[in-house]
């Protein structure tokens, strides 16, 4: 089962590359519209943590068994998280980015998952950070990622809220 899991983690890594391509395109658009970037200081840590998540999944999972009841359930959560992430990306359109870039004067998006949640993409991030390692019983990776991700997400959400408040004022 480890070979299959290796493929899954590589697919998630490719998905991250696709996100970066979309993010770069959207950043160019945002800056052309007068967008202002905030929170550059935390961004490298976020990239590092998410990259280490993928590597740690592979290292730890090589030492762990595949437990079908846990693995298949967590695989479904990973798929749902990916669906939510791409729903957010699609709904936000040019405004979506892996960085915090806000174009002054644009209205907040209030459709799609943003009807119900202020930051639905982070629900996907948290779910995936727990579920992806647990697909192959890598519980230490799930725990460490989650513990490190909590303060990082707190900084990220505060940064976004501050940037949005400034841009919409």
UniProtKB/TrEMBL annotation:
Subcellular location: Membrane
UniProt main location, coarse: membrane
InterPro entries, per the entry: ICMT_MeTrfase
Pfam families per the UniProt record, alphabetical: ICMT
Protein name: Methyltransferase
Organism: Kribbella solani
A GO cellular-component term linked to this record: membrane
Regions that span the bilayer: 42-59, 66-87, 130-155
Protein origin, superkingdom: Bacteria
GO biological process: methylation
UniProt keyword list: Membrane, Methyltransferase, Transferase, Transmembrane, Transmembrane helix
Its membrane topology: Multi-pass membrane protein
GO molecular function: protein C-terminal S-isoprenylcysteine carboxyl O-methyltransferase activity
């Amino acid at each position: 089962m480890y070979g299959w899991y290796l493929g899954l983690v590589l697919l998630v890594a490719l998905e991250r590359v696709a996100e970066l391509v979309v993010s770069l395109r959207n950043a160019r658009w945002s800056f052309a519209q007068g967008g202002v970037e905030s929170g550059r200081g935390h961004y490298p840590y976020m990239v590092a943590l998410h990259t280490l998540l993928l590597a740690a999944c592979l290292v730890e999972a090589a030492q762990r068994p595949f437990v079908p009841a846990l693995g298949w359930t967590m695989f479904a959560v990973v798929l749902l998280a990916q669906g939510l992430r791409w729903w957010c990306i699609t709904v936000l359109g040019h405004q979506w980015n892996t960085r915090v870039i806000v174009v002054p004067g644009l209205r907040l998006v209030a459709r799609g998952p943003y009807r119900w949640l202020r930051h639905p993409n982070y629900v996907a991030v948290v779910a995936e950070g727990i579920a992806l390692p647990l697909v192959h019983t890598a519980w230490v990776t799930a725990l460490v990622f989650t513990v490190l991700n909590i303060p990082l997400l707190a900084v990220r959400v505060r940064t976004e809220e501050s940037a949005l408040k400034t841009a919409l004022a």
